[in-house]
């Protein structure tokens, strides 16, 4: 059982470096991220997204090592203020079965 009431993020960036992880972006998220970056939505889509494996949506692009394109060398999110809901809601609203293995903050929340 996970109890996230005392969760504390270690700012390690591990959750943004999971190979094959998918961060889908909705039209609304595309609009707000592009606006934040000061670029056209079409440019954002072309440069920073790709079609999801199930071809049902767009996802944020990853680098060759699996890290999200927005993760900095300091493990910070370049678009933190406007990041996708999936990123903002982890781990309070959702986790995966192996999340406590990947995330050192969550490892402390296992009962
Ligand atoms: S958008 Fe930000 S929080 Fe989400 S995976 Fe990329 S770097 Fe991490
Ligand atoms: S893996 Fe967990 S502790 Fe590390 S940055 Fe992500 S949420 Fe924070």
Distance between the termini: 5 Å
Mean pLDDT: 96
General shape: elongated
Q: How would you classify the quaternary structure?
A: single chain
Secondary-structure element order, N to C: EHHEEHHH
Count of individual domains: 1
Biggest beta sheet summary? 3 strands, antiparallel
**Which structural class do you get from the secondary structure elements?**
alpha+beta
Give a count of the beta strands, DSSP E runs of length 2 or more: 3
Helix content: 25-40%
Counting DSSP H or I runs of 4 or more residues, the number of helices is 5
Rg value: 15 Å
Query: Strand percentage, roughly?
Result: 5-15%
Give the neighbour order of strands across the main sheet.
1-3-2
Bound molecules: iron/sulfur cluster
Uncertain regions: pLDDT < 50 for 5+ in a row? none
Give the helix/strand layout.
Elements: E1 24-25, H1 27-37, H2 41-48, E2 49-51, E3 58-60, H3 85-88, H4 99-102, H5 104-107
Antiparallel strand pairs: 1-3, 2-3
The protein binds iron/sulfur cluster (SF4) (2 copies).
One iron/sulfur cluster binds at residues 9-15, 102-105.
How would you briefly describe this protein structure?
With 111 residues, the chain is an alpha+beta fold. The chain is 28% helix and 7% strand. The structure holds iron/sulfur cluster (2 copies).
Keywords:
7% strand, alpha+beta, binds iron/sulfur cluster, 5 helices, elongated, 111 residues
Describe the structure.
The chain is an alpha+beta fold and 111 residues long. Helix content is 28%, strand content 7%. It has a 3-stranded antiparallel beta sheet with strand order 1-3-2. It starts with 23 loop residues before the first strand and ends with a helix. The site of one iron/sulfur cluster (SF4) has 11 residues, from helix 5.
